[in-house]
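Action item from last week, closing it out:
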Amino acid sequence: MFDNTHFPGAKKFWHQGKLYDWSQPTIHAMSHALHYGTSVFEGIRAYSTLNGPAVFRLPEHIDRLFHSASTLSMKVLYSKEEIINAIMSVIKENKLKSAYIRPLMFCGYGNLGLLPKFSPAELTIGAWEWGAYLGEKTEKGAHVYIVPWRRVHHSQLEMTAKLGGVYVQSAICGMEARSLGCDEAVFLNLEGNIAEGPGENIFIVKSGVLKTNDKTESVLEGITRESILEIAKNLNLETSVGPITKEDFFQADEIFFSGTAVEIAPIIRATDGSNPEEEKKEYIIGSGKVGDITLRLAKYYKDIVSGKIKEYENWLTYVYD
């Protein structure tokens, strides 16, 4: 039996076409993905609006889920429309006004050879209430730790896919950062440039220019990242996409994370532990306080996902017509 202590509001989940009680187990212990990380997933948010809960950029998330599945040669047994309808049913069944939504497709029970030849893909969908990923640091600003381990390189894996197994590196380094008293990790890539967080893209601001990197820097180009670039242009903010060096990072006026879970979360301090042979050094970012551009984007983003800006209504899928 499983309780929902860390999944507030979760009463039912969807698995292989049916709704189950949250505490009911449905997956075999010998499922391939449990042993080898052969899974793909999405993190999606639904927000409370005056017209009920609305899911942010749902079609784009489902498109990426299918793309990720293709990298593992998974045969998806459901259409995009069926998966969208299943997500809506989970939100409705749990009577959630806002939610974090997790569709997970994985190689299930069949064989435990390294290749999942006889382990067909299964799909499960859960949803629950989940606040800001970094808690109060989302408003006050986070202290990050630049880890000594380099991010998985784009020459090694398809970085446009959300592959479950890749996130083992994220979990290890996220725990390392927290063990040192920091709030989150930051990866360098093999070239020594800033890559991303364990599950977040990174933006810096210098002299009014908003800059992020792309997949050639070994990052997952997130849907929130793409949204922020579009929002910034509509707000007449100058944007740039390209490599971010450590020096760019330390000398930035502002820095923030972006992502579905983290949304927009400022970074105000950084400890550089990227070279284990050197003493760790701490840097204050900009003024050491949350910057004006970060605050402006965060507020505008909140208004968009809450359905307050009609220009972006096409980014919202309302749960109740």
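Closing note: The chain has two domains: 12-128, 137-305.
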